[in-house]
């Protein structure tokens, strides 16, 4: 439509100018010009479209859906395992967050190590806990850096080898604690040694007063151009009550859908971090 209108417009303009040579599209010098304009118009449309963030039905905020100079990912374009050569199937994932944010509980749930995700007597992670699993055809090594202040400062040491950072936030915590989480988060995302994507888990959605994904997005001062994905999370055992709370907090969904999304999105990002 756009191209047809442009051709008609230019033809009548050329007709008005009595330039018969311009009317013959096979030899007209206007043809390359026309092609270039159409290319720029269509390209610009898709570029703008790709920049938009996408909000999924469970409230997750994805994107921006474009590749930029610093970042290496491009989400939602399916990549299959076959496209990754066998010697490139290793990934390192660094899991960060304040003390008590829920990193250990989240990993237990994600990696199915425990049927009771919330330990009866949870212990803070001292130092860095490393866990290696074969999942989705990749050897994935997770490094959970304990959230205590004296351990947290070592987080930067792990970033240079990370393919993905998972940042866990206690969405039900106080405003002061969220401000502290924001400072830590900003420190990580501004780190020059790391240019990959960051997945933020807005955790403890089952607790009263838990902030929504949108509120966590704002509380952490995430920029629209950051390669950051904010997902709702809950490591509490699945129950009817939890499902109801999650449905209310993040839109029409269930904890099952949220878990599937975590796996799908993390796998998707890990598949493409080799690009
Ligand atoms: N209700 C609820 N409690 C949670 C959830 N996730 C974690 N918790 C609880 O929060 C507390 C801290 O959880 P951890 O997973 O140990 O926190 P962490 O981030 O690993 O903490 P550090 O290892 O000290 O850095 C524990 O009492 C967990 O049972 C959740 O989704 N819902
Ligand atoms: Mg821990």
Automatic annotation (TrEMBL):
Superkingdom assignment: Eukaryota
GO molecular function: GTP binding; GTPase activity; metal ion binding
Magnesium keyword on record: yes
PROSITE patterns membership: ARF
Matching SMART domains: ARF (SM00177)
Alphabetical list of InterPro entries matching this protein: Arf-like_GTPase, P-loop_NTPase, Small_GTPase_ARF/SAR
Positions bound to Mg(2+): 104, 125
The entry's keywords: GTP-binding, Magnesium, Membrane, Metal-binding, Nucleotide-binding, Transmembrane, Transmembrane helix
Transmembrane segments: 30-47
Binding site for GTP: 97-104, 147
Gene3D superfamilies: P-loop containing nucleotide triphosphate hydrolases (3.40.50.300)
UniProt name for this protein: Signal recognition particle receptor subunit beta
Species classification: Eukaryota, Metazoa, Ecdysozoa, Tardigrada, Eutardigrada
